Amino acid sequence: MPSAEASKTRTSFYRRLYVAWLIDSGSATTVPALMAATGMPRRTAQDTLAALAELDIDCVFSQHDGERNNAGHYEIRAWGPIDRAWVAAHLTQIRSLLGYP
What we know:
Elements: H1 8-24, H2 31-38, H3 42-51, E1 58-63, E2 72-78, H4 84-89, H5 91-98
Antiparallel strand pairs: 1-2
């Protein structure tokens, strides 16, 4: 990964990769959990989830049986052209670039 100052495009791209990884790994599968894991505001988390489709990452919301009011979790059904193993191998650099703990 380049060490130059991150552009808005790069940070947006890596934020999407990191959110997809958090969901796929089971580390954060709800908007509140994503907010806690990253410190991003609710709207940013929601916008990032919506933008995963732009990378052909298939992310769906699974409603919990018998629950109401969007009780459920997100899951990644397919990573599309993104290499999940590359994301996992570069998590430290991705978190650092984004300023996440």
